[in-house]
Amino acid sequence: MTIYGVATLAACFLLGKVVGTLLGAVIGIDGDVGGVGFAMLLLILVNGYLRRRGMMDGATAGGIRFWSAMYIPIIVAMASVQHATAALSGGWLALLAGIVATLAALALVPLLSRIGRPGEETAKES
């Protein structure tokens, strides 16, 4: 049922927020540190687990797809605005760290795009 997909997404989000808040407390920050990221990773893991066990029917997957298409991009956009504001008010070092991380991610795109491609050995065997 679609409601199971929504419930799975909500549970992953809440658990991610708890983990992010606990991580923030451990490193001495009064707030959530990466809660949405933890939630998305957890959703990917749970989704894969349910698919392997044959427990993910079409309606449940539809519920997850619907809210993923609607909700997660909005939350990520909201979080990125907060991070950009914090970086600008945090000084040059925070801004430089953000620029370096972005450039490093862009440099890795060609490498990551090769991961899913079949190699020459695989293409010859087919």
Automatic annotation (TrEMBL):
One Gene Ontology cellular component annotation held by this UniProt entry: membrane
Keyword Nucleotidyltransferase among UniProt keywords: no
Positions of transmembrane segments: 34-50, 62-80, 92-112
Presence of keyword rRNA processing: no
UniProt superkingdom: Bacteria
Record key words, sorted: Membrane, Transmembrane, Transmembrane helix
Protein name: Malonate transporter MadL subunit
InterPro entries in the record: Maln_transptMadL
